Amino acid sequence: MAVQPIRKPTRLEPWQDPGQKPYVRIEKVTKTFGDFVAVDEVSLSIYRGEFFALLGGSGSGKTTLLRMLAGFETPTEGKIFIDGVDMAGIPPYERPVNMMFQSYALFPHMSVEQNVAFGLKQDGVAKAEIAERVGAMLDLVQLGKFAKRKPHQLSGGQRQRVALARSLVKRPKLLLLDEPLGALDKRLREQTQFELVNIQEKLGVTFIVVTHDQEEAMTMSSRIAVMNHGVIAQTGTPTEIYEYPQSRFVAEFIGSVNMFEGRVVEDQADHVLIRSEDAGCDLYINHAVSVPSNATVAVAVRPEKIALSKEPPANADGRNVTGGIVREIAYLGDVSIYLVELKTGKTVRVTAPNVVRRTEMPITWDDEVYLSWRPFAGVVLTQ
Amino acid sequence: MMRMGKLAWALWFGYAFLYVPIALLILYSFNESRLVTVWGGFSTKWYTELLQNDQLLGAAWLSLQVAAMSATASVVLGTVAGLALARFGRFRGRTLFGGMITAPLVMPEVITGLSLLLLFVALEQAIGWPDGRGMTTITIAHTTFTMAYVAVIIQSRLVSLDESLEEAAMDLGARPAKVFFVITLPIIAPAIVSGWLLAFTLSLDDVVVASFVSGPGSTTLPMVIFSSVKFGISPQINALATLMMVVVATGIFIASLVMARQERQKKRDEQMAVQGG
Ligand SMILES: Nc1ncnc2c1ncn2[C@@H]1O[C@H](COP(=O)(O)OP(=O)(O)OP(=O)(O)O)[C@@H](O)[C@H]1O
Ligand SMILES: [Mg+2]
Which family does it belong to (chain A) (predicted)? Predict the structure, then answer.
């Protein structure tokens, strides 16, 4: 599924600017619990004002990494710097960091207002200012009229917003959010995603957000780090991660993808040609890859980049064109998903926007169709 | 139907087993006759006599004082022990400590009493404290054995308490001591109260340990009752027992009333939250 990022790209992103110093620097951090390696030599640089997403399956070490940033766990090896200061030995209550917990961790014996005010009280902020800032923050998350309630009197989504308000009210330089939108239904979730991005841009806070929802990571973040078994598989902008995955894991984890195995037969500066038994055709890709000729590689092609037609496509030279029979069609409203069985036996997934009404659709079950894609569509994966 | 009938009988029998002795005790506290087994008509004379019996009242007062003090002390110590067991991870000797805290629960009271007596005697010889045996030694002895119960209660409450609450407080800038008093303590307060009540009750009806560590002139109520049994029980004791039961029952009644009201309030609030969306 193609997802549009919410944020507008700025001209020069900080991670491309060599003059910028990272706000958070994680250097070869490893965390082991007994024999188990939860986080494995992770290195990351995160810049001021970024909305950085940690994406990964369950148990991939996302929460553990956040807890090390917040100071609840000590790295077994490696160093963490925040704003240039080595965080080793600095307790959680002295770090310029606030965290929103996966379980919200609202204080059950305090009202919404008291929960939000707690952090300011610890800093000895004057009473009048506390009241003012808490009120403003509750208005921001639209909980003004629930100020006097206790957490158990709130719905899941409301609790989540209290937790968010509580972690934001101290205006931390760095905010860690562990699955901030997990408990919300789809509509509220999308709405809150926009809100979060707005809040983040308005307050200029650096966000590190943990999620296992790839769509959420794609829409909200400036950059994404994909984690797998404690290791960072790839770091990049949502577009980079989606369009140029560097490994099979990343390609398969983000969105859906068709994988073709093949052998490199031509390897030029401006293109490669891969002979694929899987696809039943040669795959032509208009960028170079640094692999030896004859090497076996995988080529990833996103379902929405494949065109379906009943007639053989024009200028077909036998490259990036193959044929098959439509086996399944799933109608999703805006798009349809076609599962096409190739002559080679492989099943390929194709998504196409529904430009005409369903009843008028030209391609139906058991039709023989041609699948074709452009030279830029395929991505060669060597790992 | 046959089965139901039998079950109902079993139930009645069970309750009778529990409550008939108590009912008899209350009944005979209003007996005119001195003999426990003979009903001599209704009278409140034993209550009047009780109020003039300084020995019995003194023992009751001592017992209450000891119970209150040792319950308070064991709540403080038990909370600290429970906290260490539940929170400080895998420190050295944790398993040993965990096992040892529960040992007094299964230790025969005779042994606890005897060992404490030996300790007090040795201490008095060595440093001159405690000076003789009396209220202080009974309180200390009761604290040692009730503390184990409190520690177990607090520990199990803390284990079920989400640790991220404490972490969140720390994350928001509270130091560990502050976190304990502002977050942990209020949340585990009900467990502390029930721990205190349990310790109070245990102390109030202990006779074995108290017999070992009490001295002349400091006799707790259970000790007085126990020793007077040898000369035939005076109905005054029935009267005293009835009074104590009334006090305890009232306490329990009020507590459950308050709890029920809180529960209702909570339910109403939750419904409001659901409707409020
Ligand atoms: N205190 C701990 N002791 C032992 N193992 C732990 C501890 N904390 C985490 N782990 C293990 O480390 C691994 C990573 O856990 P972590 O909580 O970081 O995963 P996660 O990526 O946040 O997963 P999820 O998406 O399910 O929240 C898991 O396999 C977990 O079992
Ligand atoms: Mg997690």
Answer: Belongs to the ABC transporter superfamily. Spermidine/putrescine importer (TC 3.A.1.11.1) family.
